[in-house]
Each structure stands twice: as structure tokens, then as C-alpha cells.
Amino acid sequence: xxxxxxxxxxxxxxxxxxxxxxxxxxxxxxxxxxxxxxxxxxxxxxxxxxxxxxxxxxxxxxxxxx
Length: 66
Known about the structure:
Elements: E1 10-12, E2 20-22, H1 24-36, H2 57-64
Antiparallel strand pairs: 1-2
């Protein structure tokens, strides 16, 4: 059962909308909260509200790690 979805802050490098990643500090805070709450991570997702919905090179690389 999915209980909660957490929203992270983005790390927008040089104002480029086509290359947006989650802020590592935000990701660490979310992970700590999940662990402290005795929850587990089912997965993660993100949207592309201002540009093409095709996976970026960063998306492809990150997904290849799982």
C-alpha cells in the first residue's frame, strides 16, 4: 500500500530547464524521514512540466543504476 508521496526540491543547474535533478540535501532529508518513519521506498518519479517528457540522458543514467 502506498501511504505517502514526498516532494523534493530541484537542483536547477545554471537555470537550464532541460537538465533538472533533485537537490541531494533534499533527497537525504526525504530518505531519513522515510527511514525514521519505518517506511520503505517503493520507487520514485518526476515530471517534466516545461519541456519534452522523453527521458533525459541523466534520467536514463539514473534508471540504469537500479
